[in-house]
Write a structure and sequence with these properties.
Layout (H helix, E strand, L loop, with lengths): L1 H8 L20 H4 L14 E2 L9 E6 L2 H12 L6 H15 L5 E4 L4 H7 L3 H13 L2 E2 L4 E3 L11 H8 L3 E3 L9 E9 L3 H12 L4 E9 L12
Parallel strand pairs: 2-8, 3-4, 3-7, 7-8
Antiparallel strand pairs: 1-8, 5-6
Helix pairs in contact: 4-6
Length: about 230
């Protein structure tokens, strides 16, 4: 009954093309769903652990970046479509379940205050809320601070991305994360520069492990194409 009433009052629409959906619970219409390339469970779960120098690691991701998912993420991130946090968050929750992910704390990648004011919300915080609910973990939305207002990663070539975000993040309080496992949440991973720049200070502040959690990641060489982050 409640689902029927919700459909009447707020008809569900595809997160990518806004086509009307037959019922709530779906994220994409059939045509758009066919363009989403899921990442298999065997690609999930490797962690960055603080028993040595930070290193690159695999991440939990729902699908590869592109198709309808790429369109939905751009709408969510740049077009003020904050309401997409719930349907896209449902996809991220499914990826966490498939990966059998566990964490003590969920930390979103922060925006610089100037960019947060301009955008009006941090899409990573909205996604992190969904992940925290799925994992029954504490959401630490202010655990990290972005202390340098860097150039947008999407405007830079791959080689410049790591340099751009080096030293851009700091931990506000080491006591809030010391000895804990962390799920670090963002919308997209391409080179991994932003997530690595966040993971490093978390580990240096005493976090036991950091697992990167994203809606989408690039799986092919996109060096000749614009990148989302």
């Amino acid at each position: 009954m409640m689902g029927w009433l919700a459909d009447i009052l707020s008809p569900p629409r595809c997160a990518a093309c806004a086509f009307a959906l037959p019922r709530h619970g779906r994220v994409f219409c059939a045509g758009c769903a066919a363009t989403v390339e899921r990442i298999g469970a065997d690609a999930f779960g490797a962690r960055l652990v603080a028993s040595g120098p930070p290193r690159e690691e695999e991440c939990v991701a729902f699908a590869s970046y592109g198709g309808a998912l790429g369109t939905a993420i751009r709408r969510f991130k740049y077009d003020g479509a904050a309401y997409l946090a719930r349907p896209l968050g449902a996809l991220l929750r499914a990826a966490c379940r498939a990966a059998k992910l566990g964490a003590d704390v969920v930390v979103p990648v922060p925006l610089h205050p100037h960019r947060l004011v301009a955008r009006g919300y941090n899409q990573s915080v909205l996604l992190a809320r969904e992940v925290a609910a799925e994992l029954d973990a504490r959401l630490a939305a202010r655990a990290l601070a972005r202390v340098i207002d860097t150039a947008a990663q999407a405007e830079l070539a791959r080689a410049a991305r790591h340099t751009n975000v080096r030293g851009a993040f700091r931990v506000r309080s080491a006591r809030s994360i010391e000895g804990l496992s962390i799920a670090l949440v963002d919308d997209v991973m391409t080179t991994g520069a932003t997530l690595s720049a966040c993971a490093r200070p978390l580990l240096e502040a005493g976090a036991r492990s950091v697992t990167r959690v994203v809606l989408a990641r690039t799986l092919t060489d996109l060096s000749a194409e614009p990148l989302p982050r």
